[in-house]
Amino acid sequence: MAVPLGGRGAPHRPVLLRETIELLAAERGGLFVDCTVGLGGHSEAILQASSDAQVVAIDRDHEALELARERLALYGPRFHAVHGDFRELTRVLAKAKIKQARGILADLGVSSWQLDSPSRGFSFRHDAALDMRMDRSSGDETAAEMLGRLSEVEIARIIFEYGEERHSRRIARAIVRKREQGEPVTTTSQLASLVERTTGPGKQRRIHPATRTFQALRIAVNRELENLDRFVTDAVDHLEPDGRLAVISFHSLEDRIVKRTLGKLSGRCQCPPRVPICICGARKTVEILTRRPITPGDEEIAVNPRARSAKLRACRKL
Predict the structure, then answer these.
(1) If one looks up domain 17-108+225-317 in CATH, what number appears?
(2) pLDDT digit string (tens) for 116-162?
(3) Contacts of residue 30, Cβ cutoff 8 Å, sequence gap at least 6
(4) Alpha-carbon gap, residue 114 to 110, rounded angstroms
(5) DSSP characters for 186-236?
């Protein structure tokens, strides 16, 4: 399903749309919370699944939220958009006077609209200031400011841990060397060129050599892994009995946290094997609906290559 943007760019294609709506059982109607609404593709499908469905849509990107609000205005009061961070779900729902929801969705990826917006600095496809903030109104530091402040060791750690980039030390050294020469890395093209020069063009690679470095900095700037486990726990707490939670992740670090937290909530002990007594606090509050993560098929990937790394996990509250 491609969602037209009225001349604002390429069609927006929500990832794993059919599978997500089925796992949420949106046809039942009721109140759903879309924690990362983006341009509203998943929210629209929920609203279309039942005339009794309502969606409270959250996003920390003001611009995306406004576009979603415009696109889904035809649904009237059934769609309500709120600016906020999904990791602060409890506070956002309390402000909206919501205690429980029938379904909660979080699509943790960066939207195609954000990646394709030249001014946002998410992608090396466009030369732009190295920003990468999802919420530009937050006052948080940009990726360029981060690279201008952190030590070589800290930069290398971020690129290695969040990007799983084996050349992280070499890249960090090159970034700091440019900074010491009075030529700090401040644009997307500068960073992409530096990484390519440092690691080699990699003609046999399936992805651009700077892809992992850009991913790592984006995760660090937006603190994408911070409190993700708490979000999953909070989301389950805010589900009504038989309510559903669906989470779409786009890299192994996110998926690992979601898998581990859902496992704990399903009663599966997370303690090391040698610990004689469970101390992790695992308790069975959900039923896992996805024994293995659901991934896009070849047809979806052919239409939307950015979906290739998506993984969908879901659970039902007991």
Answers:
(1) 3.40.50.150
(2) 788 888 889 889 999 999 998 888 999 999 999 999 999 999 999 99
(3) 50, 52, 53, 54, 101, 102, 103, 240
(4) 6
(5) -BHHHHHHHHHHHH---TT-SS-TTHHHHHHHHHHHHTTTTTHHHHHHHHH
Nearby residues of 83 by Cβ (< 8 Å), 6 or more positions away:
58, 59, 60, 62, 65
Task: Name the one residue in this structure whose structure tokens are 């896992």.
Answer: 288
* 269 contacts: CB under 8 Å, gap ≥ 6: 278, 280, 282
CA atoms within 13 A on the CB side of 272: 2
CA dihedral 223→43→29→86, nearest 10 degrees, is 10
Q: Is 149 helix (H, G, I), strand (E, B) or coil?
A: helix
- pLDDT confidence band for 6 (50 / 70 / 90): very low
Sign of CA dihedral 236, 3, 13, 222: negative
H-run or E-run covering 154: helix 152-163
- Rounded (10°) angle between helices 168-180 and 188-199: 130
The answer to whether domain 119-222 has CATH 1.10.150.170 is: yes
Rg of the chain in Å (alpha carbons): 20
Q: Which two tokens stand for residue 225?
A: 């892994």
174 CB burial (10 A radius; 0-12, 13-18, 19+): buried
CB 222 within 8 A of CB 136: no
82 burial type by CB count under 10 A (0-12 exposed, 13-18 middle, 19+ buried): middle
pLDDT band at 5 (very low <50, low <70, confident <90, very high): very low
Annotated domain spans of the chain? 17-108+225-317, 119-222
DSSP 239-293: EEEEEEEEEEE-SHHHHHHHHHHHHHHBT---S-TT-SS--S---B-EEES-SS-
pLDDT in tens, 8-60: 444 568 999 999 999 999 999 999 999 999 999 999 999 999 999 999 999 99
Q: What share of the chain is helix, strand, coil (3-state, %, to 5)?
A: 45, 15, 40
* Single-letter amino acid, residue 125: R
